[in-house]
Amino acid sequence: MEAIILASGIGNRLGVLGKKQPKCLLNLKRDVKIIDKLINDLESIKKINIVVGYKKDYIENYLSKYKKKIRFISNKHYKDKGNFYSVLICKNKISDSLILLDADIILPKNSLKEFISNKEKNLLMVNPKNSYNQDDIIVNLNSKNFINKIFIKKKVNNLNTKFSSAGVIKMSRLVSKVFFSELNYINKSSNKNAYYEDSYKNLFNKVPFKIFALRKGRLEIDTAYDYENLKKIVKKNNAYI
User: What is the CATH number for 48?
Assistant: First the structure.
């Protein structure tokens, strides 16, 4: 299995914090950054592809100690194309099953390792049941526990069971080809600001995907307030680090 970590974004909503360094280089603790936790949790993965763009030298220099395991892929269009493009440019680099994740997420301790070792080959990580907001990617399941509906950052009503994506997905090598084809279709369309999740509707219609539900919700940093809140949670609660 290979991994793709998306770390090319600017993080405008972070204000001054986002101007100093890429979001994934923010500290969780004094000697632990967000990207450190992700890479440590991916210790069983043979190759980690990190897509960089904004202040990419900061990330490359910091992670130089992992150079045998990490491959950096530069996204020159990180300012003018959505994050779907960060994934698409990895198409010819992946030769195995795939795990894709965002670089700004903080997952509960051991959850990523459990996700990787899960026997299901095509799996979406989600937050606990009915834990979501309107800005999330929300999915619903059919009677066989396969994903049958998806809502991309839309208000959702009248569903008994709703799960929000936690920013991690894995798929077999064959299914990744379908995924990249859908991303290529987006690239040819007029929607240059699309998310990679915009491909999920067609992907899940073509390939059965199940979910891996977290026991505690993943944490994410979008604003300076989120970051201050995160530090308080990490300091008081060892469920994440």
Answer: 3.90.550.10
